[in-house]
Write a structure and sequence with these properties.
two-stranded antiparallel ribbon, 36% helix, 2 domains, Isopropylmalate Dehydrogenase, 368 residues
Length: 368
């Protein structure tokens, strides 16, 4: 893995891993990228990204797959197979969030399935939690990274009813995957001038599962003596996140805790509409909003905040070594948020998705 640090004006830095040493699908001077808009507000915020890329002449051609998680019980979705084939062919994708109904026991989450070993094995989710310049929240100087193991833990999908009225749900923790996510976290910290990596766990209760994850983390930490290695129990970490988030630097954790902590982190800096993330594996990379919120309640109302997906798309561009385009788009987003009153309702504004996107386009034109 190659790690890149990109410095922007105003001391805004988005540090992301780049896997661009792997062959991507580039035809006629353009990269082909799989686009999965997703459900809810997905198509609206995806249109924002497509509009900005087109205006900036970004050398990316989207191969769009309109898969949905809103299917009936027992119904198959052939587009899932097409999505996997497209992602494997193109090596890189941008996606919104796919709906997963809680009441359908036979409906596996497409979001989770895409990350699994049998498909893409994008094992590391990287979510950036950082204050937005110009948008005041209860906490200032928040700047930490959540690294989540994506492929096992409570999301193994291994559940069964052993006898009527008794359900067993298996949490899988393996040495191989605990080692590689720990290495990923320390490598990220080392190459991005981060000083501390904290493992989040519940080893005081789940002594074998989380205890093994924690033990493996500290074994890997011995190879990185220049990085401070610490640990926190997940309930304490949740409390610290809402009281003293400035103490956090890089956090690494199993799957479920990563989901919860990402949502807490998003709430600290403006909500699910502003937090970007990426999923990395050895061969593929998939970029998406850091909080998996579908937004069914506001779908079609033109009020969705596209910031998270736009910033995720700039992480994608850096992955493709298109740093100039990434920097220009990211700078324009932050300039609009810092210097204007054009904001969507979720961050105390009245702007529509379209008008917010247009403000970014105007800022890009002024800066060109």
């Amino acid at each position: 893995m190659i790690c890149k640090t990109v410095k922007l004006t105003g001391n805004i830095a988005r540090r992301t891993f780049s896997l661009s040493k792997y062959a991507t699908n580039k035809i006629g001077g353009k990269y082909t990228v799989t686009l999965i808009p997703g459900d809810g507000i997905g198509k609206e915020i995806s249109e924002s990204v497509k509009t900005i890329f087109k205006a900036q002449k970004v050398p990316v051609e989207f191969e769009q797959i309109d898969i949905t998680g809103q299917i009936k019980a027992g119904e198959k979705n052939e587009l899932f197979k097409q999505s996997i084939e497209s992602l494997k062919r193109n090596k890189v994708g941008l996606k919104g969030i796919l709906y997963t109904p809680s009441e359908q026991s036979d409906h596996l989450s497409f979001n989770v399935s895409l990350r699994k070993v049998v498909y893409l094995d994008v094992y590391a989710n990287l979510t950036l939690i950082k204050n937005i310049p110009g948008y005041e929240t209860a906490h200032k100087n928040v700047d930490f990274v959540i690294i989540r193991e994506n492929t096992e833990g409570e999301y193994s999908g291994l559940e069964h009813q052993s006898v009527p009225g008794v359900v067993e749900s298996l949490k899988i923790i393996t040495r191989t995957k605990s080692e590689r996510i720990s290495r990923f976290a320390f490598d990220y910290a080392l190459k991005n001038n981060r000083k501390k990596v904290t493992v989040i766990h519940k080893a005081n209760i789940m002594k074998l599962g989380d205890g093994f994850f924690r033990k493996t983390f500290f074994e890997i930490a011995k190879n990185y003596p220049q990085i401070e290695a610490t640990d926190l129990i997940v309930d304490n970490a949740s409390m610290q996140a809402v009281s003293k988030p400035q103490k956090f630097d890089v956090l690494v954790m199993p799957n479920l805790y990563g989901n919860i902590m990402s949502n807490i982190g998003a709430a600290l800096v403006g909500g699910p509409g502003v937090v970007p993330s990426a999923n990395y594996g050895e061969e593929y990379a998939l970029f998406e909003p850091g909080c998996r919120h579908v937004g069914l309640d506001i779908a079609g109302k033109g009020m969705a905040n596209p910031t998270a997906l736009i910033l995720s798309s700039t992480m994608l561009l850096r992955h493709l070594s298109l740093d100039d385009h990434a920097n220009a788009i990211e700078r324009a987003v932050y300039d609009v948020l810092l210097k204007s009153n054009v904001r969507t309702p979720d961050i105390k504004g009245t702007a529509s998705t379209t008008s917010f996107t247009n403000a970014i386009l105007d800022q890009l034109e002024r800066s060109s």
